[in-house]
């Protein structure tokens, strides 16, 4: 079925979305998403996914995967490894809301989507302005398991009236983004679908799962064929890595990071 927004070739856009739905390759999905964005007047796209978007302390966790199209080569490194992800106002908005939004980082911008811009955001804003990436739309997509994907379309060197155009095309891009995420997620390797913030060894994970079932260290040692000292060692290591001060807190944190299922 064709959808209608402002004067873009809708049959062509619908065809691209159908191709996305049928794609079983991450790179192919992103290439098609870029073509959708270009039909809507944008010039670049970003896709990222975090199985757990926030730590148990409320800190933003960088995504386990990020893919870009037609953005500077250093973009992913800056966002994933140099701390830009945590101070990107659009990303900060995504962990607070589930509604797609338009953003602008023009020189005189004081807020984005109701989020006031501060000195914290300066490195991100300076980089985007230097690269002439000052207007875009972002779609937060929350999965049933609590994972968060964000899909962004950016316009390089937008004209003075592009913000209005972006608002008109937000719904169309949001639809494209939803289909792209569904296809990309199905294609992701399991390592990208799990939280990267806490890494327990298989034995530590096994022990903490037994703790969550109400087993004592003596019980776990017997179940796993370990000495009591070894069982305690693994439980303590898991508790420390989870940033917990007790076994009960360790269970709560492990559930938060989706390492165990309490249901």
TrEMBL record:
Keyword Oxidoreductase assigned to the entry: answer is no
Question: PANTHER family from the xrefs?
Answer: DNA-BINDING TRANSCRIPTIONAL ACTIVATOR DEVR_DOSR (PTHR44688)
Q: Kindly give the Pfam families that the UniProt entry links to this protein.
A: Autoind_bind, GerE
Keywords, sorted A to Z = DNA-binding, Transcription, Transcription regulation
Give the protein name, as stated in the record.
LuxR family transcriptional regulator
Its ancestry begins with: Bacteria, Pseudomonadati, Pseudomonadota, Alphaproteobacteria, Rhodospirillales
> What are the boundaries of the signal sequence?
none
Source organism (scientific name):
Dongia sedimenti
Please give the superkingdom of this protein's source. Answer: Bacteria
């Amino acid at each position: 079925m064709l959808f209608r927004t402002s004067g873009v070739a809708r049959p062509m856009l619908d065809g691209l979305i159908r191709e996305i739905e049928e794609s079983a390759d991450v790179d192919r999905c992103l290439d098609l998403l870029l073509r959708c964005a270009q039909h809507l007047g944008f010039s670049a796209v970003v896709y990222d996914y975090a199985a757990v978007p926030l730590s148990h302390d409320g800190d933003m966790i960088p995504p386990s995967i990020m893919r870009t199209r037609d953005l500077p080569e250093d973009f992913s490194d800056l966002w994933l490894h140099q701390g830009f992800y945590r101070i990107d106002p659009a990303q900060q908005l995504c962990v607070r809301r589930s509604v797609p939004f338009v953003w602008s980082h023009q020189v005189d911008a004081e807020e984005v989507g109701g989020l006031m811009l501060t000195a914290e955001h300066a490195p991100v804003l300076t980089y985007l302005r230097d690269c002439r990436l000052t207007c875009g739309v972002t779609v937060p997509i929350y999965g049933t398991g609590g994972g968060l994907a964000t899909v962004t379309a950016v316009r390089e060197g937008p004209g003075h009236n592009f913000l209005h155009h972006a608002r008109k095309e937000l719904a169309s891009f949001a639809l494209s983004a939803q289909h792209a995420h569904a296809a990309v997620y199905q294609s992701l390797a399991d390592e990208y679908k799990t939280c990267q913030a806490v890494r327990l060894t298989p034995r530590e994970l096994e022990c903490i799962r037994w703790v969550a079932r109400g087993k004592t260290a003596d019980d776990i040692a017997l179940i796993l064929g370990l000495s009591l000292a070894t069982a305690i060692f693994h439980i303590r290591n898991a508790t420390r890595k989870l940033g917990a001060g007790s076994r009960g807190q360790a269970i709560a944190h492990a559930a938060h990071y989706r390492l165990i299922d309490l249901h």
